[in-house]
């Protein structure tokens, strides 16, 4: 239980929010493809606070910082404090893990480093590190595979939600799908014997997905900054607004979820950009 966080749910439904891919910079004026990522992140946090969704914790699923800066991670810590709920996190391909671990683990706020969450009486959440240092695609190393299998064996009666950064379903965009999780077959083989695995949640692709893979509910969530337009084989930005995801885990194993996007501000990228 050393690496496990026990979340005592208030009722039979566990509610949380996912935020992903803020891409913060050292400077609060830093822009990614024309969008001030600090401003869009802060606006997402503001509208989450104003919403009537009664969530119990937050999952931050990677690419928290764009430029590997200490200040970027400090900006994340300061911003996320405003939500006043426990925040669990995993790295994305843009994160610099030495600084990420040091700063987030030493934060005096609401950030928790544990990757295994016993959520209420019926669920467990397993947060995986799919980062491969120096490249954009993802891969689950042997330690991650073994850890996942161990936790699934330890709690076979709990429904399971698997969380990682990289995507497993095609976006129908050649430029983006080359940056996917490279060993989905190994993930599938680990999950196959465990009938209570219900969903897989990720970020990375800066777009919404609500689909199915091998019988599992698959969800991807918009970035808090720029959005990538799906079904485009060359790099293409979208004018959809930054967002986040609300998730409900029910006692019967069902997952109810919806994506929310900013309503009170507009962030538009530089549509002439050809990549990043």
Question: Features of this protein?
Answer:
alpha/beta; 26% strand; six-stranded mixed β-sheet
Give a structural overview:
With 276 residues, the chain is α/β, with parallel strands linked by helices. It has one domain: Purple Acid Phosphatase, chain A, domain 2, CATH 3.60.21. Helix content is 22%, strand content 26%. It is built from 6 helices and 17 strands. A 7-stranded mixed β-sheet has the order 1-8-9-10-11-13-12, with helices on one face. A 6-stranded mixed β-sheet has the order 7-6-5-2-16-17. Helix 2 links the parallel strand 5 (57-60) and strand 6 (86-89). It is globular and about 50 Å long.
Secondary-structure topology with pairs:
Layout: E1 4-7, E2 14-19, E3 31-32, E4 35-36, H1 37-50, E5 57-60, H2 70-81, E6 86-89, H3 97-105, E7 111-112, E8 116-119, E9 123-127, H4 142-154, E10 159-163, H5 174-177, H6 184-191, E11 197-202, E12 209-213, E13 216-220, E14 227-228, E15 237-238, E16 243-249, E17 255-261
Helix pairs in contact: 2-3, 4-6
Low-confidence stretches: none
Strand content: 25-35%
Structural class assignment: alpha/beta
Q: Which architecture does the CATH hierarchy give at level 2?
A: 4-Layer Sandwich
Number of helices: 6
CATH topology: Purple Acid Phosphatase, chain A, domain 2
**What average pLDDT do the residues reach?**
95
- The order of strands across the largest sheet is 1-8-9-10-11-13-12
How big is the Rg?
A: 17 Å
CATH superfamily: Metallo-dependent phosphatases
* Strand segment count: 17
How many domain modules?
Answer: 1
**Fraction of residues in H or I helices:** 10-25%
Q: Biggest sheet, open or closed, and with what strands and sense?
A: 7 strands, mixed
State the name of the first-level CATH class.
Answer: Alpha Beta
Terminal CA distance: 41 Å
Order of helices and strands: EEEEHEHEHEEEHEHHEEEEEEE
Could you say which overall geometry the principal axes of the C-alpha atoms support?
globular
């Amino acid at each position: 239980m050393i690496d496990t966080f026990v979340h005592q749910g208030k009722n039979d439904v566990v509610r949380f929010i996912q935020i992903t891919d803020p891409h913060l910079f050292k400077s609060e004026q830093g822009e990614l493809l024309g969008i001030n990522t600090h401003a869009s992140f802060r606006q997402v946090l503001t509208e989450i606070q104003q919403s009537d969704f009664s969530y119990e914790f937050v999952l931050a699923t990677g690419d928290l910082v764009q430029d590997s800066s200490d200040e970027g991670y400090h900006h994340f810590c300061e911003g996320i404090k405003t939500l006043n709920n426990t925040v669990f996190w995993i790295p994305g391909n843009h994160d610099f893990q030495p600084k990420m671990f040091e700063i987030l683990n030493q934060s005096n706020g609401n950030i928790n480093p544990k990757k295994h969450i016993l959520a209420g009486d019926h669920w467990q959440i397993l947060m995986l590190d799919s980062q491969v240092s120096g490249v954009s695609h993802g891969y689950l190393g042997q330690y991650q595979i073994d850890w996942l299998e161990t936790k699934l064996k330890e709690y076979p009666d709990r429904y399971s939600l698997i969380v990682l950064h990289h995507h497993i379903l095609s976006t129908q965009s050649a430029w983006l799908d080359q940056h996917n999780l490279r060993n989905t077959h190994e993930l599938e083989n680990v999950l196959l014997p465990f009938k209570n695995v219900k969903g897989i949640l990720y970020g990375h692709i800066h777009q919404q997905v609500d689909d199915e893979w091998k019988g599992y509910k698959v969800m991807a969530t918009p970035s808090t900054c720029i959005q990538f337009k799906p079904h485009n084989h060359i790099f293409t930005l979208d004018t959809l607004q930054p967002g986040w995801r609300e998730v409900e885990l029910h006692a019967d194993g069902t997952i109810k979820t919806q994506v929310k996007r900013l309503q009170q501000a507009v962030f538009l990228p530089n549509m002439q950009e050809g990549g990043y």
